Records
---
Amino acid sequence: MSQVDVPQAPHDPHHHPPVIAPGHTYASVTDKISTIVLTEPVSRGWIVGFAISFLLTMMLLYAITYLLVKGTGIWGINVPVAWGFAIINFVWWIGIGHAGTLISAILLLLHQEWRTSINRFAEAMTLFAVACAGLFPLIHMGRPWLFYWLLPYPNTMQLWPQFRSPLVWDVFAVSTYATVSLLFWYVGLIPDLATLRDRSHRRSGRLIYGALALGWRGSARHWFRYQTAYLLLAALATPLVVSVHTVVSFDFAISILPGWHTTIFPPYFVAGAIYSGFAMVLTLALPLRKFYGLEDFITMRHINNMAKIMLATGLIVAYGYLMELFIGFYSGSIFESAAMRNRLFGPYAPFFWALILCNVLTPQLLWSKRIRTNVLILFFISLVVNAGMWLERFVIVITSLHRDFLPSSWAMYYPTRWDWATYIGTIGLFLALLFLFIRLLPMISIFEMRELVTPHAKSNGMQAARSLDRGDDAHE
Amino acid sequence: MNHMDTSLGNRLDQIRRYALYAGAAGLIVWLLASAILGMRVALGAYLIGFLYVLGLSLGALAILMLQHLTGGAWGRMIRRVLEASSRVLPLVTLLALPVLLGMRALYIWTQADVVAGDEVLASKGWYLNVPGFVVRTVVYFAVWLALVFLLNRWAREQERTPYSQQSNWLRSLSGPGLVLYGLTMTFAAFDWAMSLEPHWFSTIYGVLFLIGQANNAFAFAVGVTLLLAWWRGVSETLSRDTLADLGNLMLAFIMLWAYIAFSQFLIIWSGNLPEEIPWYLARLRGGWGVLALLLVIFHFAVPFALLLQAEVKRNPRTLAGLAALVLIVRAVDLVWTVAPSFSTHGHHDGIWVALLAPVAIAGLGGLWLWQFVQQLRSRSLLPYPEETAHSLDASAEVA
């Protein structure tokens, strides 16, 4: 990355907390992060956590198997609510992924160096969330083994996707997103994989990490090309932060259904995605930081900044709700205002008011710096926002579908146990993948943290930079 | 820095004089034309001019608050220009009076007989009514004037005593201030522009105005800053990185505008509903369609392609040129958004409104510029030097 010249910051009382605690050297950073993977024993907490999430993953497999045997009739969907949990969960998961891309790509391009310690696991979170998200439209198709019919390929069936349908745009948006996110994450890992290869005491570790490191030796030429590639990938990933959820919002807005067909949807969906994504990053980062003692790397500065981004995006989302309601009643269209009245006072009204409580009222606490830096309350708020964003998608999908233009076709939607099993199962899959990730790969980017050591050691008056450890001759 | 050198001062005095002449001339031509074209056309063109200068002041206010929240060298460079733009708001408040006084000619929902014969309009009476419109206008301006007053006052005090409490106050006000601005300007856009066609509605309409204002005020601030640097002979010493930051922000605003404008178009086009699509049908046919195409090319494609290039952003001349382009296309966008509304409901005044709009923009813009230069001269051109360390320190910080 470009060498940022950090000025000698004056120590006034409003000075920001550092992005890396003082006193760290190249060696201590490398040790601290790599030992979690290489030498620390498997803790009981990890085993219990992984076991639970693995069991939930098994439940997911069971639910999907039963679905393939029986068909989508086992879910609560029917006419008129043909999009039930599957689409709610799809939108929820894909939204969560967005924070990872924002942190790793946009904040990198904006020279926000505080992103460094959270980008790795935020990117992993993106990948796992996209995996969970992608599952839902696939199994919702009824015959998922024919998913390739969605792709435009020459065939004898005279079959071609309907390119005016945003559902087809979704196929491209999400598959592009998954591919770029995976590439970005993997490319970011390469130097660290080489560090793990060099420090691993086991032959198996050296072999596996070695193969994955693609022969990285850390020569100056490697670094030069590496940084070019990384920046290019960041630039490629940046539009995806906006495009993916914009296309997802089109799934709804392109229709003419009241409550779906509204012009605010694209920016409001994108803001909602980033909102839920940062909530999930906090939900994961706060416990990880505590259990693995990473307070030096994920400092109050990170937590405070993430809380601020959550507040800002939460306000945009609240603006979206206000505009939907206001225009619904202002429009003078009986269908629009009926849809809004149904949202506010209809049979699903408790979901709407719970959503307002979770997504609009609770995050107002984040105006206070004391709350933004209170880890426990913040963790709680992040959970509330995660729930709120799920409720938001529930309200959008269900309340608009269950009562459309024709009262004779109105009906209620009730999720079945299979809906719940699939949804909770994906949470299990997500967590299981994360548990594996924190054991097998460095959850914080080692080489990027080392880049932070020098300027910050200097600004703290430390003589730390000299101690290059043995794995680090690659670095400069 | 506090005392501008005399040649620059003379130059600014000259501009101030010419701006006043241009403003007076524009308003006289506008008055003459309105005698021929009628009250409705004249007020329509006036409304466009009013929204244009309002955007220059309010957009500056919004970017100023954004800049207090995020810090960064780019903000320091244009802060005094933004503050001067925001301090023209009292004049803009006066300029709102003709809109209020002429609302019966401008907005058909004010006419009782029209409303009585129209079920949809009658059902909108809870929002679209004369007392509500007047009260809301007063509230909007009260909020904006209060924000402008406090931000400028604290900035002035901060200037005298750096590292004072005022820096914190500025930051603390800016967050809620942005929320207030977003809400008030959204409803102001509904009131003043969207309700020209009271049957039509779009949830994103307010955002289009917010982005448009930020876009315009930012381009203006960048253009003025570069021009001043040029006249003072220091444009070669401008930090190329800061220039690139300014260019990137300009690019971000351009892209945001295009994203929002296209989203609204795509959603309404695909829905093709009778209550929504007429708005676009009116704006894509005939001469209006040409304006729409010009917007696609010059409000998006050209600046987008140019601002992607590092050299364009880092060159003060090309950056200033692009800023001037934005100032023009923002006016075109306002004309395209507002003027066709005057060709609905059996009227065909849109074309005359569009033709008279440049005169109104020149008149109101001249007055605005006259006040702006006055305000710019009243304070130093750059924030107090000792503040540098502080704002650089904050530059690593995101919102």
---
Amino acid sequence: MGLLNRLGDPYEGGGYFLGKLEDLLNWGRSKSDWYLQFGLACCAIEFMAVNAPHFDFMRFGTIPRTSPRQADFIIVSGTVTLKMAERVKRLYEQMAEPKYVISMGSCSNCGGPYWEHGYHVLKGVDRIIPVDVYVPGCPPRPEALEEGMILLQKKIRHEDIFNKRKKLAEEDRLLALKK
Amino acid sequence: MQAQEIFDKLKEQFGESIISLTDTAPSDAFIIVAGGNLFDICQYLRDTDGMEFDYLVNLSALDLGENLASVYHFYSMNLQHRIVLKVIVPKDNPSVPSVETIWRTADWMEREAFDMMGIIYEGHHNLIRILSPYDWEGYPLRKDYVTPEEYHGMRVPY
């Protein structure tokens, strides 16, 4: 609130504050994540509950998008069958960078109840697309998905935007030294 | 109409094609019929006064080891009686006449039975897989089905 007070009564010469542009951008990105409206199985029912007023997913700054090209992240909510897996991958590939994935529920984490006899089920969506946050549960309660969303926001907030490759190269160098 | 009466009437009409009746509670009474005459039997069941089976409740398939079976559950909305037909066919030539033109609902149900059990419904206008991908190999609900190692580059086992 201090900032807002100052805006009302700025210092002489105009109000200003110091900070990193990266932090500002990440703050903005983490508070306005648009997700792909996409439900697969019973987890999608729980996901709908999260969208409804009682749990109010929109307070995280999320808006459902019906096109992957407008979405920032995708919630894989349910069993990924082999037939569907190719479609999921295609949707993910159509999303613009930067993009994130929340894997919701046991089925998309690891195959869930279909792990042994599910001839038609992909045993974990991380076999085809990279997952950022795993939400366990069968299905997860809405609160669990909300925590997943908070974790995703945390991840986005601490992400590198500038000199990303330089930093990654440095990390790789350190890793190689450890070996 | 009771199952025994239906059975007697069918026997009178189709003779050798009607093989046996099993009527033990609590399961539904079922009649085992020969595959060859199935279409005519079904036409008779639907169109004869006193039968009037206008509703195909369910069409499913069984794996009996050596044989496959196609199972039909019928119900008459008008007369409120029901009967079950079973057709048993060998696994190496699982061919059953299609009843799709008698009850339209049989269209997708026969496709599902074909998809899961591999029963070939002769005369079906569009007998392709309905749940599995079109290029799927094998019939998943058969007892001797082996889960594939890989599908389109994705590993299937856990």
